[in-house]
């Protein structure tokens, strides 16, 4: 089976669109010249991946090549800078930022640092290797790097007890090399998804609260709890030792701002605000752990914790349809199924009825409200610092060619053949002046399995139009690692 589009832990090509013409793309190529993507996606072990990454001197084509140690001799005559990487470092991302440059033809590249750049103890991991890596990246013409600021590491010792020391060391090192830094406010757990090379759970004191009250996390109709992220159903309830989740996220971002005030806007140029699993504004409808879901399954609705159920009941009562508030759709199928296997998502299914419109409007609306709350807070905290704000939206491209767009619906994007689900997200981002960061920019329709009804190209085009209408910038990153020949 094919893995899903996924996250920011990859070494791959990336595209960054700022709604400007003539944007170039950067491409990473493999020495093994994998031309069959199915063959590539079957690779699992670290031995399958390159252990040395060499960045050719930047040319107008912005071509970047990666190759393994066995082929290093072949490239000896070329002027290259090499970085010896650890296993975790194989999962890197190329990420771009165009807002800080006047030359529209130049495509700045940001490289995602390893997920465990900061250790569990709060210190910078392998500082000598990091210093050498940053030096090589700078000489290669890279604009900067991106790092996750994990909630589970920084606030692990207790509420309001923050340890930013490892990140402070990184910021100073990045500045020393004349690079820029993008920081992700990562309020989700690391581990259990494609590309996750280490495990960083939520803070221990938060997990303790979850053990006392399991409804604090997203829950599916079978009662499976997902520990990746706090349920948005309790956003405004003081369930975390007297603070609401939104207050906790706000205090965290405020602490970051105060600690790094002198670097914001000059070294730290972008803050990406995490709003869900994998840092994306979505529900955990396609969890990667324990074989619960497999690509290209439709996923499941995540609205069965007591807080979400109470909200649904209230919404149904408000329109005089109390029976519509008894949980989510009963005929929406299971994680691994296809749309036509279900009564809800099939061609003329329940999704296209008054009930379907009510439920999907409520489900997607709750997600938009969640993003609005967090971004409103982030805007107030970082306003005037010079750092740009961004938010990430998942590229759920499978079953895009079907009428219901089932996989998008379970993720929280009310996008169907009859309705544009991304314009509402773009307008919410525009309200706060936030860059719309979208994944799966590197994917092509022809590369996807036919039965899955995928159209990453169509999805990207739709999102591009939505951001243009909303008047905001569209940023992009790769979803999976790539090894292109040429």
UniProtKB/TrEMBL annotation:
| EC code(s) of this entry | 3.2.1.2
Xref: InterPro entries: GH, Glyco_hydro_14, Glyco_hydro_14_CS
Specify the signal sequence span: none
Q: Which SUPFAM superfamilies match?
A: (Trans)glycosidases
Reactions listed under catalytic activity: Hydrolysis of (1->4)-alpha-D-glucosidic linkages in polysaccharides so as to remove successive maltose units from the non-reducing ends of the chains
What are the record keywords, sorted? Answer: Carbohydrate metabolism, Glycosidase, Hydrolase, Polysaccharide degradation
User: Pfam families, alphabetically?
Assistant: Glyco_hydro_14
Any coiled-coil regions, as ranges: none
Gene Ontology MF terms: beta-amylase activity
The record places the active site at 280 (proton donor), 477 (proton acceptor)
Q: Which Gene3D superfamilies match?
A: Glycosidases
Give the GO terms filed under biological process for this record.
polysaccharide catabolic process
So what family is this one in? Answer: Belongs to the glycosyl hydrolase 14 family.
- Protein name, entry field: Beta-amylase
Highest classification ranks of the organism: Eukaryota, Viridiplantae, Streptophyta, Embryophyta, Tracheophyta
């Amino acid at each position: 089976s094919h893995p899903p589009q996924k996250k920011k832990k990859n070494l791959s090509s990336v595209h960054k669109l700022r709604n400007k013409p003539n944007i170039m793309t950067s491409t990473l190529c493999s020495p093994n010249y994998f031309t069959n993507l199915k063959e590539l996606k079957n690779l699992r072990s670290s031995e399958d991946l390159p252990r040395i990454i060499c960045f050719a001197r930047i040319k107008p084509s912005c071509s970047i090549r990666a190759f393994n140690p066995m082929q290093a001799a072949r490239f000896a005559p070329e002027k290259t800078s090499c970085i010896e990487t650890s296993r975790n470092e194989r999962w890197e991302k190329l990420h771009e930022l165009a807002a800080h440059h006047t030359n529209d033809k130049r495509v700045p590249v940001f490289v995602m640092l390893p997920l465990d750049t900061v250790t569990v103890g709060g210190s910078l991991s392998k500082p000598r290797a990091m210093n050498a890596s940053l030096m090589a990246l700078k000489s290669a013409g890279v604009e900067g790097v991106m790092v996750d600021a994990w909630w589970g590491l920084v606030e692990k010792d207790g509420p309001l007890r923050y340890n930013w020391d490892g990140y402070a060391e990184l910021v100073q090192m990045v500045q020393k090399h004349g690079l820029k830094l993008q920081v992700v406010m990562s309020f989700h757990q690391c581990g259990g998804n494609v590309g996750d090379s280490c495990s960083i759970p939520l803070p221990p004191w938060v997990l303790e609260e979850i053990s006392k009250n399991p409804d604090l996390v997203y829950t599916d109709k079978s009662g499976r709890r997902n520990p990746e992220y706090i349920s948005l159903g309790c956003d405004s309830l003081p369930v975390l030792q007297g603070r609401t989740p939104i207050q906790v996220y706000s205090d965290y971002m405020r602490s970051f701002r105060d600690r790094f005030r002198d670097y914001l806007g000059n070294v730290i140029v972008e803050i990406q605000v995490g709003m869900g699993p994998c840092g994306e504004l979505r529900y955990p409808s396609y969890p990667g752990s324990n074989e619960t879901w497999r690509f290209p399954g439709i996923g499941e609705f995540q609205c069965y914790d007591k807080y979400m159920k109470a909200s649904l009941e209230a919404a149904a009562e408000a329109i005089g349809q109390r029976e519509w508030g008894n949980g989510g759709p009963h005929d929406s199928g299971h994680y691994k199924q296809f749309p036509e296997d279900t009564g809800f998502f099939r061609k003329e299914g329940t999704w296209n009825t008054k009930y379907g419109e009510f439920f999907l409007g409520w489900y997607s609306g709750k997600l938009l409200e969640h993003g609005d709350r967090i971004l409103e807070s982030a805007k107030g905290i970082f306003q005037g610092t010079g750092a740009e704000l961004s938010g990430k939206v998942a590229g759920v491209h499978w079953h895009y060619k079907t009428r219901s767009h089932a996989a998008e619906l379970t993720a929280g994007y009310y996008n169907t053949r009859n309705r544009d689900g991304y314009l509402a997200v773009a307008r919410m981002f525009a309200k706060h002046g936030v860059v719309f960061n979208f994944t799966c920019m590197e994917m092509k329709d022809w590369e996807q399995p036919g039965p899955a009804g995928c159209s990453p190209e169509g999805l990207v085009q739709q999102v591009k139009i939505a951001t243009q209408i909303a008047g905001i910038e569209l940023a992009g990153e790769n979803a999976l690692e790539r090894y292109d020949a040429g």
